[in-house]
Design brief:
Length: about 1000
């Protein structure tokens, strides 16, 4: 039943200001945002201000202006029922408004996803449940973002969300996702909130803080009006050019510039005995109504922010004519107003509703809530279907009827889960736990059966204690989905305490205890309080010897997955295989596919590459076919990682990009950060460094956890070192440390961190620091499965020693370090091409560090690299081979070969902007008098070899003498004394030498002199 708007014609808004005053600047900000959105730049504006300051009026004026500019507008308000916000209410209202305006276009845009978006827009049909809760929620958010992008292609959309301070957490999270994810759309999203309601612990406060960190969000704070603005408002209300000065002064003082209070005071200025109490002021307008209208207003206040006419009529119970008369009086007095859809009523201002509700006696409020509950229970069609369960639960709860409230709350929790409103589901489950103690045994036995908590073994029995444990399991699962880890931890502790204190019977069931221990393990990792192994081990002990079950399979799958990332033995493969078998027996396919991914990873690690890759490909393919999106993300991430470790970079890139395409098709944002990070790592290996940097940026933009950023940050640091930017590399390393924390030191993170820090220290000339790091890494060790990370670390150590060869200060300890490198390399397996190539590079680099650069070794390394697609390392090896050929004093053919190698290396380094490698190639070319870019037929492309190494750099005989003493560690004064020149002349010679050698300091000059054979090695203390 509804009242047509025409039935309220003739009701005048006499106290509403017909002029819009004091908000010109704020309106201009909004219109500027509209202009930017019109050219495809989505805009987000958050409008804050105290109650009554004019937020709604500002938005109304802006929306009117937007419509005049041919924009399409929609308004959605956050709905408060008692103290509870309805999940996704404002978003549903916005989508419903767009559906009414563009039904055909919207239906076409969501074709194939109607069942999922029906959770927000029931007009699309019955909701489907194709995905698990975590995946389905993320997909729902992504599909909503896509829908808005689609609808905004042909027009500018302006979406307004009012009363954000009442928003449920699910609405806040969806809005945050839209703000972060919609990048190319003609869209303006405006949200308003009451700033005076945002106390220190208000849930909106962290949401606003998150928005403040986003560049795209604009905040508009509405101040109170000044005296002149109040004067203009009063003039508009009274319809006079100039109101009485005394009235302006009095109203301004008492209202303190709050526009709503100005209206109320002007409307009742004839009553001089108005109390200074705010509530009394707000109630004056209500108390002036006829008694029947006052009663209708009181009833409406307890119904929620909006009340459907049919529901209000059922609760009031008066004849329709009397109800309409009362409503007309309330609307005419500007206490109530019709809703936009014409189906119900709302308070014109929330402050009035709050004042009316607060004025009710406790018994009155409970009685009214009971009447609302009975009306909805008798005729659920009085409210929207998607709101029915939540409102019924709220009404019965505030009616203080446990027998009715507990089952209603649990039914509402199921409905919230179906809509992926996990925070609201958790609030309802907490309320159920609160009501449990006061519920009778009969009430408990009448409750719905256990709903959902992953692999948890619900009993379906009537034992009250067991059913309470089941309710705790639902709470744990929901709290984890909602991100409420403290609540999950509390429930886990409570459940385990009950289970451990029980003796025999159902409560002694180890299967339930194992489930809670498994969840505790997950939680420990999420909270960075440890690696969760002790909890997993406890779960494994509890299920040992029990018949197959999903709990048993999940525990073993988690044990295997843990072992794959930590030091482990060969029996881990057996554990993974058992998890696969158990999951297959009990029909837990998602657990089985997760276990297959782990099994494939372990098989590759053990040397059975083809079997492992085949296993992982099969799991990835099956998960995609079945829409198991969480498995899709993990399977494609790990398969790409494994192919990368095998040196099959093109395949790895193809797999990672396929995974990204699948996740996009499924509308699933999770795991994109991982996939982009691994894609960047592979692009780095392939020498596509600019693309790699873009992939790292994509990883950051799509990260859903700190762990998903670790790979991209590590490789970004490696890239920075390769480009000669140790400062940027150090920043990346610090970020990796922050992301990893100290709670779970995994080899896949710790070993590359050591290698990166060694590279940074070596690039800064701090060889001793690099050696200390290497010694620490070797002391910690390289457990089974960590070989792929150990090889690059050994290569970094060998390169650091090789680059410092000839430097007297580096000689002490060099032999020991090189021996450790050799010994460690002999112990590491070389099962696949990539580690084999690293082994060849290390062997050759160690010989170079000893001053015995070997042509054959570098040729072997290059032959191996030719079979891989790693252009940077290939260029590095070519430069080293060219150096070895030149040092060997080869003939003209050898020099021509060296020149060709140098040009290839230089071209790659130049294209990659690999500054250190480019500089090394140029330095070597200058020394050998090789033109890196010769004329095609130029006869002087390769000049004759210089008689002495110093001549290749253009050093004079005197400068070569000075360099010999610099290499011996002499100071300028000592050089002057030995060569019988002044210290100033010695300083000039040293400056010229540094310039000609293109080095930054005396130490680098000395190292280069020794390395190039320009001086004879001698101890630094020769004098």
């Amino acid at each position: 039943m509804s009242i047509p708007c025409a039935m309220l014609d003739g009701v005048q808004a006499s106290s509403i200001s017909p002029v819009f005053v004091g908000r010109g600047a704020e309106l201009s900000e909004l219109t500027d945002a509209l202009a930017r959105a019109a050219v495809g730049e989505p805009q987000v504006v958050v409008v804050g201000g105290e109650a009554g300051v004019g937020k709604t009026r500002l938005l109304e004026e802006f929306l009117t202006a937007a419509r005049r500019a041919d924009a399409v507008t929609a308004v959605g308000g956050c709905i408060e029922i008692g103290a509870d916000g309805l999940p996704f209410a404002p978003v549903s209202t916005l989508l419903r408004s767009l559906y009414r305006q563009f039904e055909a276009e919207l239906s076409a845009a969501v074709a194939g996803q109607e069942g999922e978006l029906a959770r927000l827009l029931p007009e699309l049909g019955e909701p489907t449940h194709q995905f698990d809760d975590e995946v389905g929620r993320a997909r729902l958010f992504e599909l909503t973002a896509r829908l808005l992008e689609s609808l905004s292609r042909e027009r500018t959309l302006v979406l307004s969300v009012e009363d954000l301070h009442w928003a449920d957490r699910s609405t806040r999270e969806l809005l945050a996702y839209l703000i972060r994810s919609v990048h190319h759309a003609r869209l303006v999203l405006i949200a308003s909130y009451r700033s005076d309601d945002i106390h220190r612990r208000h849930p909106l406060r962290p949401f606003l803080a998150e928005l403040d960190r986003l560049r795209t969000v604009q905040r508009v704070e509405l101040p109170r009006l000044g005296k002149e603005e109040v004067r203009g408002q009063i003039a508009g209300i009274q319809g006079v050019p100039e109101p009485a000065g005394e009235l302006v002064e009095d109203v301004f003082q008492r209202s303190e510039g709050n526009p709503f209070f100005v209206e109320e005071l002007v409307a009742h200025c004839a009553t001089c005995d108005i109390s200074e109490s705010l509530r009394d002021l707000l109630l004056v307008r209500v108390e002036a109504l006829p008694e029947a209208a006052q009663r209708v207003v009181q009833i409406a206040a307890e119904g929620g922010t909006t009340v459907e006419f049919g529901l209000l009529a059922a609760v009031v119970g008066a004849p329709q004519d009397e109800l309409l008369a009362a409503l007309r009086a309330a609307v005419g007095a500007h206490v109530l107003a019709p809703t936009e859809d014409g189906d119900g009523y709302r308070f014109r201002h929330a402050l009035v509703r709050e004042a009316v509700s607060d004025d009710l006696l406790p018994g009155e409020r409970a009685a009214l809530n009971r009447r609302y509950a009975e009306a909805v229970e008798a005729n659920p069609e009085l409210v929207r279907a998607e709101h029915c369960a939540a409102r019924l639960a709220s009404y019965w709860y505030h009616a203080h009827d446990t027998a009715k409230a507990l089952p209603a709350v649990l039914e509402a929790a199921v409905e919230a889960r179906r809509r992926y409103a996990h925070s609201e589901q958790l609030r309802l489950l907490n309320r159920a736990l609160e009501l449990w103690e006061s519920a009778t045994p009969e009430t408990r036995r009448s409750l719905r059966p256990f709903d959902h908590a992953d692999a948890y073994p619900a009993c379906g029995c009537e034992d009250d204690a067991v059913r309470y444990i089941d309710l705790l399991a639902e709470t744990v699962s929901t709290a984890l989905l909602a991100g409420e880890r403290k609540r999950a931890q509390t429930s886990i502790k409570q459940a385990l305490r009950i289970l451990e204190e029980a003796e025999g019977g159902h409560l002694g069931d180890p299967l339930r205890a194992a489930w809670f221990w498994t969840q505790k393990s997950k939680l420990k990792g999420l909270n960075r309080q440890g690696d969760g192994w002790d909890e997993l081990a406890r779960a494994q002990d509890l299920v040992r010897g029990l018949p197959p079950s999903p709990v048993h399979a999940e525990a073993l799958a988690n044990v295997a997955a843990y072992a794959a990332l930590h030091p482990h033995g060969p029996d881990t493969i057996t554990t993974a295989q058992r998890a696969v078998d158990l999951a297959g027996v009990v029909g837990a396919e998602a657990i089985e596919l997760h276990a297959r991914v782990t099994l494939g990873y372990l098989l590759v690690e053990s040397g059975n590459a083809e079997a492992g890759v085949t296993e992982m490909r099969a799991a990835a393919r099956r998960s995609g076919e079945q829409g198991m999106v969480a498995v899709v993300g993990r399977a494609y991430t790990n398969l790409g990682d494994v192919l990368h470790s095998l040196g099959r970079f093109a395949e790895a890139l193809e797999v990672l990009e396929e995974g990204l395409r699948l996740l996009k098709r499924f509308g699933q944002p999770s795991f994109r950060g991982w996939l982009h990070g691994n894609r960047g790592e592979t692009l780095y290996a392939l020498g596509r460094w600019n693309e790699a940097e873009r992939a790292f940026s994509d990883s950051r933009q799509n990260a859903d956890s700190p762990w998903s950023l670790i790979t991209s940050s590590l490789v970004a640091g490696q890239l920075a070192v390769a480009r000669g930017r140790p400062g940027a590399a150090a920043e990346a390393l610090e970020e990796v440390r922050r992301l990893c924390g100290t709670h779970d030191p995994q080899p896949q993170h710790m070993i590359p961190m050591f290698a990166l820090e060694m590279d940074i220290e070596a690039a800064r000339g701090r060889l001793d620091a690099a050696r200390e790091l290497f010694a620490k890494a070797v002391e910690i060790g390289f457990p089974m499965g960590s070989e792929r990370y150990a090889w690059p670390l050994l290569f970094s150590a060998a390169t650091a020693e090789s680059e410092a060869r000839g430097l007297p200060s580096a000689e002490p300890g060099r032999a020991e370090v090189l021996a450790v490198i050799r010994r460690t390399a002999r112990r590491l397996p070389r099962l696949y091409p990539a580690p084999t190539v690293y082994g060849l590079l290390i062997d050759a680099e160690v010989l170079r560090a000893e001053g015995r650069s070997d042509v054959t070794r570098w040729e072997e390394a290059i032959a191996g690299l030719d079979r891989l697609d790693m252009p940077y390392l290939l260029a590095f090896a070519r430069c080293r081979l060219a150096e070895a050929l030149l040092d060997a004093g080869t003939d003209r053919a050898g020099r021509e070969r060296a020149a060709g190698l140098l040009r290839q290396a230089h071209a790659v380094a130049d294209g990659l902007d690999a500054v250190p490698l480019r500089d090394a190639a140029e330095l070597l070319a200058a020394r050998a008098r090789i033109a890196l870019r010769p004329e095609p037929s130029g006869p002087t492309a390769i000049a004759p070899a210089p008689d002495t190494p110093g001549e290749s750099f253009g050093l004079t005989r005197r400068e070569r003498d000075v360099l010999t003493l610099v290499a011996a560690g002499r100071s300028n004064r000592q050089i002057a004394e030995e060569l019988y020149i002044s210290p100033k002349t010695a300083s000039v010679h040293v400056s010229n030498i540094l310039s000609k050698l293109d080095v930054g300091n005396r130490g680098q000059a000395a190292a280069l002199a020794h390395r190039m054979g320009m001086v004879s090695p001698q101890p630094a203390s020769a004098r």
